[in-house]
């Protein structure tokens, strides 16, 4: 189950027109990445996605995801407007076995959620397992929740603690079993907002059953509460991935025999590849390019000189040949 219904008021004003689960990282929405996480890690056959805020946009994204992931059944389910715990409980008629729950506004970079499977094998009689992560930033724990442990058994959960008991950050990844639904019914609403909080349900499960365990994840975790969180995540991911990118220099030419060799020499070793996009040279430009063993992409000239239009194509997009070369 993926919770993708919240309004995300702390990321206002963007969330007035884009729900947080549809924020993108490297060309994919958080929602699609979490679907991929569930499918690749747990081989799930069915995923319930809770929808509410900007429902039509989320449903449209679900349709796109379905086209790329045809071997999993994705089922939208309406939110209760009463919080995550109630949204999960609304699925009681459909769920009869252990199930993973992930918050729709949390992005896991290089996830290792397979550790939930290891926890289940270690504790086959567990009724829940909660994802946690060690962190040196206590401010992150204060924004989420903390757990007190005995070994890997969870003794207590504390929502947004002012004084965290340890360096364990509670994440929005959970492994639940059907007993969850009974514990939900036993959990009183919060005196602050009248809503049954997910942390209160888990806390009750932990104290009554002593069968709730922590699963420590070694993962880059981004909780997108605000636009600042989103921009920080984008920066961190790009910074880590930058070394994997290939740097390409594209050199448009037409009768540049006197300068092309200097350009190639100047950038040799500074970029991964040099592409020569030639617009009908009649001098020795092509001969020099071939001698330097550089990739050559001839294009049909559109006039007597290379203009910004035939160099890069009409409008702001690249010329078709350059697009194909990249």
TrEMBL record:
Protein name: MobA-like NTP transferase domain protein
Pfam families to which the protein is assigned, alphabetical: Glycos_transf_2 (PF00535), NTP_transferase (PF00483)
UniProt keyword annotations, A-Z: Transferase
Domain spans labelled Nucleotidyl transferase: 1-233
Domain of life: Bacteria
UniProt domain Glycosyltransferase 2-like: residue ranges: 249-315
GO MF annotations, alphabetized: transferase activity
CDD domains hit by this protein: NTP_transferase (cd04181)
Region annotated Disordered, chain positions: 299-326
